[in-house]
Write the structure tokens for this entry.
Amino acid sequence: MTGFDQIVGHKDVIEHLQNAIRMDKISHAYIFDGETGSGKKLLATMFAMTLQCEEKGVDPCLKCASCKKALSKNHPDIINIVHEKPNSIGIEEIRGQLISDAGIKPYSSPYKIYIISDAQLLTLQAQNALLKTIEEPPSYVVILLLTNNLDALLPTITSRCVTLSLKSVGDDMVKQYLMERLHIPDYQAEIDASIAQGNIGKAKKLADSQEFSELTQNALKILKRSGDGDLYEMVDAIKELTRDKQNIYDYLDLFLVWFRDVLLFKATREVDSLVFKQEINYIKERARKSSYEGLELIIEAIEKAKVRLRANVNFDLVLELLFLTIREN
């Protein structure tokens, strides 16, 4: 696969960009809005490569001199804005790398393209400085702002850009991608896709992580003994999660998928639609013991635990409340 067809999902965004190229109606500024890992950088890079490609099609040829330079991250007319401070992009960086540079014509291409990753980190001063270039850009300048928080950008910026919002990719597409391109086994691909919730970047990260595979097995052990185990087992589970608290949200996501499987099996008695198919005996047993209301209470308790942890409520207390709900239902 070459060009845009290697991107999973986002067909509406790709169609918009290719139509703009086909009709020669390229905007001077675009915003790619989507959560971290959704594919903003790949889309923006592919768009930039296509605009500069010597074949002038709606996909980059990947063979011409321009495409080869872009692939090696050495294209003089595709500029990625860098910043020293991890949490902000300041006015000096925007002035030095974009504003003062934009007046210089492209070295060898039809466009001069600036890619600002993490555009939500632009300071107000940097955004105001950038605004003039967005309002009155040279004809050859295209600015691509990539953000996971559109609200962090000034309305005066967003109103002058074409905003392309990246939606979640379907679980089936994510699973297919993991199995066909990364050769992840069916069972693990199903889990990774469910936890990633439509985020292809997160799915890839999970699939490549031996640690996440081990974490999944650990989560299953905790879940299998959480229903009717002794109180000391609950205490041990909390201690175990406390030691691994940097991964607590992955654990909670796995707990959610598990109990949704239990609820789904209780309602349908079907195995094919379950994520944890290989654990059907344990799922069947849990479905027998828990009521519909009890399972819904557990799912609600897991969601509450995530909210409370983000609000910095005491870690052990949050988990104690969660495991008590799991044991009682």
Remarks:
- The longest strand covers residues 141-147.
- Residues 53 and 60 are 6 Å apart (CA to CA).
- The longest helix spans residues 248-268.
- The mean pLDDT is 86.
